[in-house]
């Protein structure tokens, strides 16, 4: 896709200003329907409430009804199919990524988006993905740890905002506004199952015998069940206690191919010919019922439940008390690639005579509690004091596997260690309305204490056993345990101070200036700023723009995480010892001269227009450019033999975090809404929302003793530039007639690339643009009861297959990047009762 320029919107702005800047004779269509004014409550402005079109920056506001209309199973996927700049895809076999959907804005990394709950910073997860892809090495948030039923609306600020909200807000901010009803409630039950028949797509080559590598069998898997209950209760005369309980389970769905390794599943008999060994291998597989299509490439089994509460009440005529938070418990059961009986380095025939598939369960807990008081003081001052405690805890296991180096003494179930992050948060925010009421002054502070803990697994999961001659892999195969030298607990603190002034000079012109200073105990200071303005040429046309400097501090987990017993596989499928070394390691400091990592910094420019063309037709268009310096990513596998400090370590390659690259991202966001009513008690709503995005690498930094090409695998750069769809266009039509709603949605996902598979020309494979169609019918049986039947991905569309199926045929779809997952058609039914 070609580069964008801010001039694109500048030209459009001049044209539209000429069209709508003067009094206009355009009349509303003959319809009583009008587009509802959307009020933003938490982000984009320090004013208590502004409509989204009055802001100087673009903010999407999505109601719970809009999210539920997607008929998706969790809030991450709900946003995937409603917000074009938001991307979240489910993966199966890909390190720890099945635990969360790596979610991001504008094609940037997951940790470059800030997540807020009721305007307060949410903690990140304790782990990052070590495998390849856009999310490699990045810590995001588990947005699915909060149930959709607990939410009143989602606000997505599509603009850099570190000057207002602190670290991470480079791509933007997602704010989950919790339900604050003091009465009524709802119960929602949801179920669904994949009903799909993936077929050979003509891209991946056929098997040696001319047959399809993937036979295209009819599949019914991924069964999903969830139930949620939300209810509000009064707390005193004017207070509220809003509670949400939920439980969710989805079975795994699998879209892996058939194991086709030419060497066979069982060891060869040296007395037999190749043809005889192949026949014997097939006979034994048939006799023992070996299923060669048994990896989990799709989505892992997931069970999740919890509670979330939002409450508040007046303490007196000036002060309100509030508290919110919740707890969730999740168990994810993932799978790893097949280990053939014939692989002597990974298998023990006395334990697994037929080979094995490691199973990798994980148990994760999320918790958060925030409490505070908000009050109105004399002379138009408002104060908000709050404190919060939150965290994420992860316990890792590995079953149906062995530590090959232990021989016959190896157990088959392992506890491989744990990771935990905690966050203590203290906020003081003050706002004052000045003079004539058109100026808002805001300032405040945020103090944050963070901890990260890494605990070792049981000894058998990481120790070298009695077979120590290098012929056997070390550690529990599939997920090696954390060793004793990785264990530790670390902490840091930071203090942030901010000030912001928003002035409405006239009814037409509004401007905002914000500055923020932060000090981190591990790397020092950072200063951010933001300038934003809005000018309304007429009641129907507005121009807005901003420039800001934002930053992202490296997370504590990225600073401190290590794994010295880590096995990877090279392109030939052979084992390679590739430990992950932390920046604090003396080995890293001696070899590469790294003593600390710098924060990522960005310079963002944005220019946009909003136009209410008629009462029932609106348009917004925003162009942006985000220049990021010193992006923190994981290195490629650095050859340990090139550095004497690693002599005798047994390492083949090492991985480290480094400020490796500078990038520029440019794009366009477009939103068009239209609504009209007919004379038969019916209404039609049409919406188009689109994001077009392009990222380029401007510079790759070097380290002492390493050229850029040796530091960063060029294939990883492809995931940075082309790992997220180049475009996403969502077209939605909703027809409402009396007690029935019909919804049709088409989502077009742009191209992505995977550099670890190549096309016939030897270039990274490009996965073509795909359109996914969803249909649903809702019947309002009574004023309280509604039933919805839906089909997601009606036409059973899949991403392109790999040209060269990986891992001996098991991986036929990319496990590192794709546009929308590989579930295929999904049938679903839901029921909601309101009172």
From TrEMBL:
<comment type="similarity">
    <text>Belongs to the TonB-dependent receptor family.</text>
</comment>
<keyword id="KW-1134">Transmembrane beta strand</keyword>
<keyword id="KW-0998">Cell outer membrane</keyword>
<dbReference type="GO" id="GO:0009279">
    <property type="term" value="C:cell outer membrane"/>
</dbReference>
<keyword id="KW-0812">Transmembrane</keyword>
<dbReference type="Pfam" id="PF07715">
    <property type="entry name" value="Plug"/>
</dbReference>
<keyword id="KW-0732">Signal</keyword>
<dbReference type="InterPro" id="IPR012910">
    <property type="entry name" value="Plug_dom"/>
</dbReference>
<keyword id="KW-0675">Receptor</keyword>
<protein>
    <submittedName>
        <fullName>Putative TonB-dependent receptor</fullName>
    </submittedName>
</protein>
<keyword id="KW-0813">Transport</keyword>
<dbReference type="Pfam" id="PF00593">
    <property type="entry name" value="TonB_dep_Rec_b-barrel"/>
</dbReference>
<dbReference type="InterPro" id="IPR036942">
    <property type="entry name" value="Beta-barrel_TonB_sf"/>
</dbReference>
<keyword id="KW-0798">TonB box</keyword>
<keyword id="KW-0472">Membrane</keyword>
<dbReference type="InterPro" id="IPR039426">
    <property type="entry name" value="TonB-dep_rcpt-like"/>
</dbReference>
<dbReference type="InterPro" id="IPR037066">
    <property type="entry name" value="Plug_dom_sf"/>
</dbReference>
<feature type="signal peptide">
    <location>
        <begin position="1"/>
        <end position="28"/>
    </location>
</feature>
<feature type="domain" description="TonB-dependent receptor plug">
    <location>
        <begin position="54"/>
        <end position="173"/>
    </location>
</feature>
<feature type="domain" description="TonB-dependent receptor-like beta-barrel">
    <location>
        <begin position="324"/>
        <end position="794"/>
    </location>
</feature>
<dbReference type="InterPro" id="IPR000531">
    <property type="entry name" value="Beta-barrel_TonB"/>
</dbReference>
